[in-house]
Amino acid sequence: MASSRVLRIAIIGGGAAGFFGAIRAAEQNPGAHVVIFEATQQPLEKVLISGGGRCNVTHHCFDPAELVKNYPRGHKELRGPFTRFQPRDTVDWFESCGVKLKIEDDGRIFPTTDDSRTIADCLKRAARERGVETRLGARVKDIRLGPQDDSLSFEIECHGRSSEQFDRVLLATGSAHQGYRFAEQLGHTIIPGVPSLFTFKITNSRLDGLAGLSFDNVHLTMTDQAGTRLEQSGPLLITHWGLSGPAVLKLSAWGARILHDCNYHASLTVNFAPSLSAEQMYQQILKHRDRNPKKHITTENALPVPLRFWRRIVETVGVPDEMIWSHLSREDMQAIIAQLTQGQYAIRGKGIFKEEFVTCGGVDLREVDFKTMQSKLCPGLFFAGEILDIDGVTGGFNFQSAWTTGWIAGSQLSQP
Which long-range contacts (CB under 8 A, 24 or more apart) does 309-317 make? Predict the structure, then answer.
């Protein structure tokens, strides 16, 4: 490649990973011509809707070894990249651009404005200031390898426009099928995508009428028909259609393929008070009974669960509303404890998580060099973001993998 010729870089996809990769490439090589091809008229759409319109930029987890534990797929591959660009670097980058961020109690990080447009506007401004050309409504029709004797490696054709040649290409098309098609055409294997991060559809009388009730911490055990078991802990929310909350969403992410393969039919065991053993529960109920012998059981909660749920469980095991504590038998106490620690619920479908939809699947990670994010099969081709078979649990982790892979790809594809 002649040093006098301008390096031409094509970024396919105007999302978080695409913009971050383009910005980094332009920073590293100010003389390069960097072009973002965005099929729609609205770049950074997922940034705008994420976090309920607030944009969960990343998570306050600054230890790469701990950070990777939040990625059901990609945890091994991301270990190295996170030592080079991790959430602390993301925070520093946005604050260097004048965007102030805040850490919430659960570790999620948002802009202090609580407005996702703050992040989107920052990325668009940073790209513009670095000379990145952003083409909206530029739907790529085809990506072809250039002639063997041509120093330019790729030929890109958009709908309604003549083809152009580029030296390097970054595919950052998220979970769009078009991006998978381009990757396949250039020799890559695509792991079929299935939903991740979803709620559980459960119809059960123990949950009826309790929508909105939440638990600070539960322990979930999911078992499919083949006997495969997965476990997760965390907050839980009862909804009109079943169960949601961080514990369910994490379990859905780790069990995404298992649940897909069993058509979202599985057994769920819920421990609603995992901080106490069954024996500790029994002793606590016993003490409460002795201290409140004349009070009605349904008006007094002996264990750390919401009173409305306590009443429902007491009703479920057949204790009459009018029964007082002194009449509660040992068998009744054991039945209540069993319901609270080993309650069985049948998963019979899935919902989605708010307006966001995360999938697992994408470019086979074995075919990508994670030191550079370059294809092992097609020199000059790079990947970043959700096009890869990487997905994280809720909490800003999916954006962090986009920032990290985009930053590394941008650092490398701009090299002369």
Answer: 309/210, 309/213, 309/215, 309/272, 312/206, 312/210, 313/206, 313/339, 313/340, 316/205, 316/206
pTM: 0.90
Strands 343-348 and 229-238: unpaired
**Calpha distance 321→294 (Å, rounded):** 13
pLDDT in tens, 189-233: 999 999 999 999 999 999 999 999 999 999 999 999 999 999 999
Q: Angle between the 330-342 and 307-316 helix axes, to the nearest 10 degrees?
A: 120
Q: Measured between alpha carbons, how far is 250 from 72 in angstroms, rounded to an integer?
A: 9
pLDDT confidence tier of residue 356, bands split at 50, 70 and 90: low
Distance CA 351, CA 356 (A): 11
Looking at the DSSP bridge assignments, the partners of residue 359 are 195
Would the pLDDT of 75 be above 80?
Answer: yes
Give residues with Cβ within 8 angstroms of 329, minimum separation 6.
none
Relative orientation angle of helices 75-84 and 397-413, to the nearest 10 degrees? 60
Q: What is the CATH number of domain 8-194+356-413?
A: 3.50.50.60
275 pLDDT band, cuts 50/70/90, is very high
Sequence spans of domains, the chain? 8-194+356-413, 198-352
| Structure-token pair, residue 83 | 């030592």
pLDDT digits (tens, 9 = 90+) for 145-181: 987 555 558 999 998 888 999 999 999 999 999 999 9
Compute the distance between CA of residue 253 and CA of residue 234 in angstroms, rounded to an integer: 14
Distances (CA, A) of 272 to 22, 181, 236, 298, 303: 47, 45, 9, 18, 10
**Quick check: 392 pLDDT over 90?**
yes
Residues in the chain: 416
Q: Closest by alpha carbon to 212, among 252, 241, 250?
A: 241
The H or E element that residue 367 is part of is none
DSSP H or E segment with residue 87:
helix 87-96
